[in-house]
Amino acid sequence: MLIICEERGMTLITVPRGTYDIMPKQALAWQWLEKKIRQVFLSYGYGEIRTPIFEHTELFQRGIGATTDIVEKEMYTFTDKGGRSITLRPEGTAPVVRAYIEHKLYGQTPVTKLFYIGPMFRQERPQAGRFRQFHQFGVEMIGDASPVADAEVILLAHDLYHQLGLTDLEIHLNSVGCPHCRQEYKTALTAALKAAAAKLCTTCQLRLDRNPLRLLDCKNASCQEIISQVPPIQNYHCADCRHHFDQVVALLAEVDVKYKLSPKLVRGLDYYSRTVFEIINNELGAQNALCGGGRYDGLVEECGGPSVPGVGFASGIERVLTTLEQKGILADFPNHPQFYLLPLGEELTTIAFSLATQLRRAGYIVELGNGAKSLKSQLKTAHKSGAAFAVIIGEDEWQAREVTLKTMADGNQKRYSVDDLLAQLPQLVIALEKSASKEE
Question: How far apart are CA 317 and CA 137, in angstroms?
């Protein structure tokens, strides 16, 4: 959006619709969350992968499914200068699978466990909890067809949220079957809904012949009423799919992970097979899914690789942060300097600059004052910064190679030689932190 700035008579450029800036204080919360995510994923044996933000469009057409809403309506696709069709990634699984194939990871270990964190892009109507540039983290376990893999991925998401303090979420679980029994269900579903096709919403009427399973996910009230009359997909599961799902459920029960069976849960991507799941926060309103995933046994082969099974999930960082804020779990992340150096005169600025450099290289957070300003003015700025200590470098002190250390909380101050100050700083900082924690 462009806004005319009347005062200057010029155009003010703002962020594009559906995007936003993450300011420094907010970024601290993001960094904290990303650190937690990495810790949990690494503890489960997953390694981080970073794929390009854009890929060849064909990857998503083949991987996600040409008739999905993402491919048909939501992708940011453009033609580059070489005439190639390029798409900003709308999700993370297809790029990870492409990298898995391209780098022949299937030849290195029987099972490959990867995770990612990064921005995704979908051109959809912005609303609460939904953006055109959004951020996801996710995991992919490729090479294991067993129910244990499904249960581990679900448990991983469950444990991550619990470690973040989110303990009252709902896990919704279903199986969409293998391609064989799913095709039988699609045929039965299409036949069952043909008579009521005129009563379906426009989108569902289009889906009926092209992708009937997607009707189960429609949020339109009239469509839901019609769909509630059709038989569940479980009635069409083959013996292998029934056994697989029973094992997943049994494994989750073994580790006391609570879940709800959701026969209408199909997810919005064509590559899913057998187990699918979502983790829900009902306090978020319409956009209440924190996490979604499942098994995708045909995706690697569909993208040009060997016939290798896979399972994974993706979660939205924005929605997790919103949930943490709602529940009062997200802490305030101060970013105050530990030391604020105040040179009392421009001729002492070089000295202050050198001392600030020493402190920063020692691992402290340091701000440097303006030697052209008065002590009163610099102290006022130091107070506003939230610094724990002010280091005053005056002409008289510096003749003796000394500085004055002022504790901002109580105003106490003491002169130190530079060498003594550097030697005693670790103890001084620890003592101040202990004092602050007692007051809290």
Answer: 7
